[in-house]
TrEMBL record:
UniProt name for this protein: Pyruvate dehydrogenase E1 component subunit alpha
Biological processes, Gene Ontology terms: pyruvate decarboxylation to acetyl-CoA
Reported function: The pyruvate dehydrogenase complex catalyzes the overall conversion of pyruvate to acetyl-CoA and CO(2).
Any matching Pfam family: E1_dh
An annotated Gene Ontology molecular function: pyruvate dehydrogenase (acetyl-transferring) activity
Cofactor: thiamine diphosphate
Organism lineage: Bacteria, Bacillati, Cyanobacteriota, Cyanophyceae, Nostocales
EC code(s) of this entry: 1.2.4.1
């Protein structure tokens, strides 16, 4: 069987979206795809080292949540080891993300983090995390401080929402259950986003959990749980907007399960021999970028020329990022012990 679960239905005809919004979503998704393709090229050319986990195929989730429903640069984003595209959607410049992948001092983590540890205080990106489920309690801490500042300290501007991304494998981890319980009890302004791409490294999701429908686990915590087609950016945007609105209104967290698929192996070191051709073909046919392009054209929100212009623009952005990374300096050895502890301003 190619697909054990039917993708949720979504009536795109009822979507209210402007041309400007549609093109912005398309540009962000295209940036994610082109950037990751370039990462693969650079990795195989020996420009990047270590483990590199790409996001191809899952762009509708990052774009739909961050660009479609949140305030990038104001709200908080917590990622995973598949974090490049979350960083880009959150507003971290492509130059800084690419430089970090090259281990350069101009990277968003000063060359210390690499692929799995993107961080940007300026853009409120709370980090990528190598350990499964590691970012879940960190994200909840960020949500707690927003609530505390607003309700205890009286800071009316503290209405930030935190988006916490993690994979299906993390939903079997103890931190998932403990943190969701606390978030529900305290009504934290957070949305938990499960990017269910069906595989936790080489373990099929259906074989690893007694309840494959992760969104239903929200009911245990008296929390809203929503299942969404993670290959449809407009569907993700709709459920995310509702979740963010609830969080800002003080109504507590939401668990969103986005059914999606990674088009490449677990990492660039993975030969990807465990997944069947039929399964891959089923999901490749649901490419989220092609789906959005078709919608924009069908509803006269874009022309072929406009979409091509965006692709050309993004290609230039990615090429510029590579040149910037290649020409940037390595971290100086004299700063080996810097950034271990907090520094005075």
């Amino acid at each position: 069987m190619v697909q054990e679960r039917t993708l949720p239905t979504f009536n795109a005809a009822t979507v209210k979206i402007t041309k400007e919004e549609g093109l912005r979503l398309y540009e962000d998704m295209t940036l994610g795809r082109f950037f990751e393709d370039k990462c693969a090229e650079m990795y195989y050319r020996g420009k990047m080292f270590g483990f590199v986990h790409l996001y191809n195929g899952q762009e509708a989730v990052s774009t739909g949540i961050i660009q479609g429903a949140m305030r990038p640069g104001e709200d908080y984003v917590s990622s995973t080891y598949r974090d490049h595209v979350h960083a880009l959607s959150a507003g971290v410049p492509a130059r800084e993300v690419m430089a970090e992948l090259f281990g350069k001092a101009t990277g968003c983590s000063k060359g210390r983090g690499g692929s799995m540890h993107m961080f940007s205080a300026e853009h409120r990106l709370l980090g990528g995390y190598a350990f499964v489920a590691e970012g879940i309690p960190v994200a909840s801490g960020a949500a707690f401080q927003s609530k505390y500042r607003r309700e205890v300290l009286g800071d009316e501007s503290a209405d930030q929402v935190t988006a916490c991304f993690f994979g299906d494998g993390a939903a079997n981890n103890g931190q998932f259950f403990e943190t969701l319980n606390m978030a529900a009890l305290w009504k934290l302004p957070i949305i938990f986003v499960v990017e269910n791409n069906k595989w936790a490294i080489g373990m099929a999701h259906e074989r690893a959990t007694s309840q494959p429908e992760i969104y239903k686990k929200a009911s245990v915590f008296n929390m809203v749980g929503v299942e969404v087609d993670g290959m449809d950016v407009l569907a993700v945007r709709e459920v995310a907007q509702a979740a963010v609105a609830r969080a800002r209104a003080g109504e507590g967290p939401t668990l969103i399960e986005a059914l999606t698929y990674r088009f490449r192996g677990h990492s660039l070191a993975d030969p990807d021999e465990l997944r069947s051709k039929d399964e891959k073909d089923f999901w490749f046919a649901r490419d989220p970028i092609k789906k959005l392009a078709a919608y924009l054209l069908e509803h006269d929100l874009a022309t072929e020329a406009e979409l091509k212009a965006i692709e050309k623009k993004i290609q230039g952005v990615v090429e510029d990022a590579v040149k910037f990374a290649e020409s940037s300096p390595e971290p100086d050895s004299s700063e080996l012990y810097r950034f271990i502890f907090a520094e005075d301003e």
